[in-house]
């Protein structure tokens, strides 16, 4: 299909303000359908789940449908969908729970490619339990994460491998299936950070080999809700801290406090939005999600090529990352300007980008950018278009002559 970006953009009220939202790697804008779903939930009346009256039954229905929607998005089972406020909070919760089974002599493996939310919770949990931390390193010349190194890192004492499905800083998409296969061969569990991958590609947690897969709805046009999906049978073996009256079954025992039911309704609408990005897609929601996200991947790939080639043609720009498979995320520096000065200059041209290390602290250090303020990140989403990319390129080109301040 030909991706109809004009049709897609029309669904987003925020895109009428004149700004080019090339900050999607930090969080996306929200379509009207999601806004309406959240507002309608409040208008209709909502209560806590488990009650005898209609407002409570609405909460029960929203919770159940949200789990089904996220299962359709990721290829998981609804009974294995854990909900929470964000990926970081849920990862800390899982790290605390899993690490109770670790002890001195055990090992966990993290990577320099990852967002700190898939590093620090595991490092800190390992320190508390006495387990050792081993690091998978990035090839700095390409920003690839070589899968072959895991053979030397793994041992019979490896308990968990934490790996990203896509770098939020440079876009690298490592060979997750190869890494998880090696980890499973050593008897280790795999925790896959899918926050940056989910907005850009079709996701199948089984094909990835993910024992746990984390994602956040606000990265794919939803509200600020996080989820971790896992095999319900695996979750049955884990026992997090919880209140005595709270749900004791799976997945409810991993969810602390009252859910944000209206936001969960927004998550459902966001998944439906993604499923409808290819209007020709038909069949069950899971099939429509896969078809639509394949269309998104193709469209964003073309747009990203335009962005990369434009930046690469500028002598005053240095690009970081040359991985063979990437999410549409460009990370660069501009000679003579700090990353914040570049971001300020682009903001003056109504182009939104981020500057800094974007919580990928280990990678920024490995790239030698931590002490210089990191870099500039432009992250594409399915609602961006060529005109927005060209506006960014024009603004960066002007910096060479000092034309924008």
Query: What portion of residues is helical?
Result: 25-40%
* Unreliable parts: none
Structural class: alpha/beta
- Whole-number mean pLDDT: 97
Give a description of the structure:
- There is one protein chain.
- Helix content is 39%, strand content 14%.
- It has 14 helices and 13 strands.
- Helix 3 runs parallel beside helix 10 (261-275) and helix 10 (261-275) crosses helix 11 (285-312).
- The protein is globular.
- The relative contact order is 0.17.
- The mean pLDDT is 97.
Summarize the structure.
The protein is an alpha/beta fold and 405 residues long. It has helices spanning 5-9, 32-44, 54-74, 87-98, 120-129, 150-153, 176-185, 205-208, 232-235, 261-275, 285-312, 339-348, 361-366, 386-399; strands at residues 20-21, 81-84, 107-111, 132-136, 158-164, 189-193, 212-216, 226-230, 317-320, 329-334, 351-352, 354-356, 375-379. It has a 7-stranded mixed sheet, with helices on both faces. Strands 9-10-13-12 form a 4-stranded antiparallel sheet, covered by helices on one side. It has a two-stranded parallel sheet with strand order 1-11.
